[in-house]
Amino acid sequence: MDGRAAPAQSEGDVNHSDRRAAWAGRHVGPASRALVERDAAAFLPQSLSSPCLSAIRRAEGIWIEDMDGRRFMDFHGNSAHHIGYAHPRLRAALHAQLDDLSFAPRRFACEPAAELAERLAGLSPTGPGSRVLFAPSGSDAIEMALKIARLATGRFKTLSFWDAFHGAGFGASSVGGEALFRSHGIGPLLPGAEHVAPFACQRCPYGFPSPGAAPDLDACRMACARMLRYALEKEGDIAAVVAEPVRAVPYLPPPGFWAAVRQACDETGALLIFDEIPTGLGKTGALFTHERVGAVPDMVVLGKALGGAMLPVAAVIARAGLEVGGDRAIGHYTHEKNPLLARAGLTTLDIIAEEGLAGRAADLGRHALQRLEEIAARHPGVAGVRGAGLLLGMEMEEPDRAEAVLYAALERGLSFKVTMGRVLTLSPPLIIARDDLDRALDILDGCLGTRTR
Predict the structure, then answer these.
(1) What is the 3-state secondary structure (H, E, C) of 380-423?
(2) Would you say residue 415 lies in a domain?
(3) CATH code assigned at 190
């Protein structure tokens, strides 16, 4: 595991330095503190990663352990640990691949890379004839998808959602909607990156109240989808809509939303790109998140968990008909066809399939969601709960309460992230035992019932 990744933070979180410092002062031991200080002296400071909260010496299964021996159930994992940390089967496969073939220059085909591309194309709902490109990060893969969309449509504009995160590169930050990656003196981003308000029925940006867990579609008439269509029609020359089919907050789309967007894209000539970097590969209860939202994209982007929480690898899967860059270099990465990275992806896919992890996520997710609803009913200040598979969220009415619960949970050995300032986002590995899942939910229940500092 990347020892620099603070378990208390994530994309879009605010660094609440006072409470963070107070927690570290009480709970970070001397060995962890020494490494955190070395890290801070060596790395350029930046929000969300340096300086760090603590230091990691071991990661295995659902657990991370700091330099002083404190253990945490990791319900964060930067969305990379679907198969858990240090999966023995993946470790063995990578050792064997190192002995067999450790690198391949781009101009030479290698068997693992070709097999992974074939596997992903065959699994993808984008259909027969789909093609694949690999990249070393999800942000890079998003930018490759943008290039393909420009070449295929002859247009350069994009339409995406405010509050979305699609990566930290300039192109990915441009289509993303988080201020942390778009401002603070960075300067102009890509031209033509247009945005609309996202779907978020529990906190509808168009002002329509949502009774309980279900949106009132009779009242709102799906204003979010209608506004997206309006923007597509008014702009008239959008190359692609770029979006998460289920937002990693998590926020779930209202019924019929993506079918309406798919139709609007078809009628205006825009491509639909689904970013499943944090949510794909079984996390939401299906191998591909968009399998259950009623729309098939033109391209889907995967990353994070594809490398099995060991190696960085991401992929763009494009439907037939988008072979438009044969005379250009769309990605051209040094490790584009690295056999070691490809072996990580192949073995991760094998583990997800053979251990039934997508179905397991669906089953455990239903159990966890029911428990979260019961927990929420016992505690004031909870605005709602929601989830898809093992991507779960509990939204607090007050951001300060969310942060306080986070640090209280860390004290008791549970790490998760707070998203958008108020959503306790729980994203455990898909291998988690039901008893461990219940134990984590018990910790959360106890933290909600305790006066926290």
Answers:
(1) CCEEEEEEECCEEEEEECCHHHHHHHHHHHHHCCEECEEECCCE
(2) yes
(3) 3.40.640.10
The pLDDT of residue 49 is 83
Report the chain's terminal Cα–Cα distance, integer Å: 29
Alpha carbon separation from 104 to 100, 110, 315 (Å, rounded):
12, 7, 17
Decide: residue 41, CB within 10 A, 0-12 exposed, 13-18 middle, 19+ buried.
exposed
The mean pLDDT value for 115-123 works out to 98
Report the predicted TM-score, pTM, of the whole model to 2 decimal places: 0.93
Check residue 353 and report its DSSP letter: H
Query: CA–CA distance from 62 to each of 59, 65, 73, 187, 365 (Å)?
Result: 8, 10, 6, 40, 16
| Residues 306 and 78 sit within 8 Å (Cβ to Cβ) | no
Half-sphere exposure of 288 (CA within 13 A, CB side): 22
Confidence (pLDDT) at 350:
98
b/e map 284-306, b = 16+ CB within 10 Å:
bbbbbbbbbbbbbbbbbbbbbbb
Tell me if the bond preceding 250 is cis, omega within 30° of 0.
yes
- Cβ count near 80 (within 10 Å): 25
Domain containing residue 330: 88-354
> CA-CA distance, 300 to 287, in Å (whole number)?
12
Measured distance CA(251)–CA(387) in Å, rounded? 8
CATH number at residue 398: 3.90.1150.10
- Which pLDDT score, from 0 to 100, does residue 188 have? 80
Is 165 part of any domain? Answer: yes
**Residues 85-101: pLDDT tens digits?**
999 999 999 999 999 99
- In the chain, how many domains are there? 2
The values of phi and psi at residue 140, to 5°, are -65, -40
Mean pLDDT of 45-63: 91
